[in-house]
Design goal:
- With 177 residues, the protein is α+β, with helices and mostly antiparallel strands.
- It has a domain at 60-177: Glycoprotein, Type 4 Pilin (2-Layer Sandwich), CATH 3.30.700.
- It has 4 helices and 5 strands, in the order H-H-E-H-H-E-E-E-E.
- The chain has helices spanning 2-23, 52-55, 79-96, 107-114; strands at 64-65, 122-123, 147-152, 155-160, 173-175.
- A 3-stranded antiparallel sheet has the order 3-4-5, covered by helices on one side.
- The radius of gyration is 22 Å and the shape is globular.
- The chain starts with a helix and ends with a strand.
- Mean pLDDT is 80; it is low at 38-51.
Length: 177
């Protein structure tokens, strides 16, 4: 009887730990550089004396803007630098979403996730970055969408089609961290 009670107690404790792991709040972003000061005006929050109804009219904050991808496709860099930078952006995403792993989907879906369409509204790449084309795809320095190949939940190969803008040709450049 005592052994059965101990087993029951251990099972309840294990279930409680599992529930806590899955229901605890998402981690906050910690590995981003401090955001650059915004040029636009900031929304002033109402004072404590202001009516509570006015507080509910405040729009949600814009996604945090990271300067991490500012050098992407810079004339002073190379395609190797660009591929490493995109890999760093993906690594930063994974560190802020440890349960999610890599963003998934086509280039446009991955780009949407990296530009702030995620749970934390964390924009690791600004949505108006010049490397994003009209279709919402992240492009290389020649304007061709990067090809993302998820090898696992934490490993992503990034490929540029190179100057000829055609995948699977000798001038392609890839980076697999």
């Amino acid at each position: 009887m005592l052994r059965q009670n101990a087993l029951t107690l251990a099972l309840v404790a294990a279930i409680a730990v599992l529930v806590w792991l899955f229901l605890r709040p998402a981690p906050t972003p910690t590995s981003l550089p401090p955001p650059a000061p915004a040029a636009e005006s900031k929304i002033e929050l109402p004072s404590a004396a202001t009516d509570q109804n006015q507080k509910s009219k405040i729009p949600p904050p814009a996604p945090e803007r990271s300067t991490l991808a500012d050098a992407l496709n810079s004339p002073a860099a190379t395609i190797d630098d660009d591929l490493r930078l995109v890999a760093l952006v993906l690594e930063t995403f994974r560190s802020n979403f440890p349960r999610s792993g890599n963003p998934v989907g086509l280039n446009s879906e991955i780009t949407a996730t990296l530009t702030g369409q995620n749970q934390l509204r964390l924009a690791l790449i600004p949505p108006d970055h010049p490397a994003i084309n009209r279709e919402g795809e992240l492009t290389d320095r020649w304007g061709t969408p990067f090809f993302f190949h998820a090898e696992s939940a934490t490993r992503m190969t990034i490929t540029s089609a190179g100057p000829d803008k055609k995948l699977h040709t000798p001038d392609d450049e890839s980076f697999a961290p």
